[in-house]
Amino acid sequence: MSVNIPRGTQDILPGQSEKWQYIESIAKDVCRRYHYKEIRTPIFEHTELFKRSVGDTTDIVQKEMYTFEDRGERSLTLRPEGTAAVVRSFVENKMFGMADQPVKLYYTGPMFRYERPQAGRYRQFVQFGVEAIGSEDPAIDAEVIGLVMDIYKMAGLKKLKLVINSLGDAESRTKHREALIRHFEPHIEEFCGDCQMRLKQNPLRILDCKKDRDHELMKTAPSILDYLNEESKAYFEKVTAYLDAVGIQYTIDPKLVRGLDYYNHTAFEVMSEAEGFGAITTLCGGGRYNGLVQQLGGPESPGIGFAFSIERFIAAMEAEKVEWPIDKGLDCFIVALGDAAKDRSVSLVHELRTAGLSAERDYQDRKMKAQLKASDRQHARFTAILGEDELTENRITVKDMAEGSQDQVPLNELANYLKTKMEAN
Ligand code: AMP
User: The whole model's pTM is what?
Assistant: First the structure.
């Protein structure tokens, strides 16, 4: 019996994995410029963490978590998202006491959600995310949004739409919540079972329902922007003014609510507008979570962050047909002929690798023609041929595959010779 890969997961094979590394390297480089540092947290956490932060009424907690009991009868959950764990760690490691606030962090790694798999939606996917915890300066909201837009820009994506909204503070949200209940309650039996439950628990989440998206009452639902108090309004205006100041274009969408409970004030998403991008266009989601640190046992410490998945990032790159500047990556293939040359090629590839070059040799005892073909297939920049004559004369024949030229090089000079030629190009 053969065993297949679990539904909703994928193997990232060579040829694809370079794309992942490329996106991750861009994201990390932008984080460096914005002065965000990496944090690594466990893949699993106590289930309670997600119930308390993501929220009991969310789809994630109710339907999508990979929860299991370990041998010590603790309930653990494979992380469905990154913010909860980062905030837990912030509290546990007393980062709120650090001299420099906000604490600016980024993370990357696999997340797990038991969702219905489709294009762009997996059960295991890799998120890259950023959290800035410890400041309520609207400039940090604009910074975090600017950071993710910079990552996309550096990768070469152009067909993007940034959508922002304010969910307001607690007071604004309470007023809006009451208005939503008044709006939906008389017709709630026309909505799905989930929405009927959401009405009393968290009516804002009705606006996020995939099943009832087209119901007439969705279009006329009270807008949060009409319920923002003066403070929340002023905050939102500052955020947009700072975005204007750094030239970031955005659209305000009062219907944007995020699927997780902990958000308030700024909420945002980045969508792909590339033709041919699948039905799910959201590339990135983020927002402010001012009560979360307290909810998880820390002092008042307001935060904001975002996360995107590498899977959808790559899909957007493919849809926009952006070039991948990926080095095919083999500097030199050593073709060795005869037993003595083959033996010598073992230390020769090692010398090249030690000198920082990527080098390969034959391990299949192939004839010269097959070795030359392998060198070609592997896109070697140089093919170095070591036969018996060369070996006795302590030299090697080096073909520059790009230029079509050929040189005889002393064996102990090979690494330097290749490096000099590569630098000259
Ligand atoms: P969320 O944590 O739900 O706000 O999602 C943030 C981002 O993670 C989304 O904008 C997507 O880029 C990505 N994402 C969420 N769920 C999935 C999934 N099941 N498969 C792939 N990417 C996902």
Answer: 0.91
